[in-house]
Amino acid sequence: MPRKNNAPPHQLFHFASNCQQKRRYVNEKMAEAAAEHQMLLQYDLELSVYKCDLCSGWHLTRRPRTK
After folding, report:
1. Choice between 66 and 44, residue whose per-residue pLDDT is larger
2. Average pLDDT rounded to a whole number, residues 36-52
3. Of 20, 36, 45, 59, which is the most buried if we count CB atoms within 10 A?
């Protein structure tokens, strides 16, 4: 008999709620400008930007950009 999914309802949409907690930028240019500003304030910080599949906005990340 297969196991039932007993995850609480709030965990079913974990990625959507996670996205809502992030700062969202309208376009890549604005996200790049914000990333550069943060990196000027903190010299050892490396940020890149990515397009979010959930909200279609742009977010910052510390992960290096993959090509």
Report:
1. 44
2. 93
3. 59
- Residues 37-45 have a mean pLDDT of 92
Residue in the block written with tokens 């996205």: 19
User: In 10 A of CB 35, how many CB atoms?
Assistant: 19
Residue 61 CA neighbour count, 13 Å, CB half: 12
The first and second tokens of residue 35, run together, are 């990333």
pTM given for the model: 0.67
- Domain locations in the chain? 24-67
d(CA 52, CA 55): 6
Contact status, residue 49 vs residue 29, Cβ threshold 8 Å: no
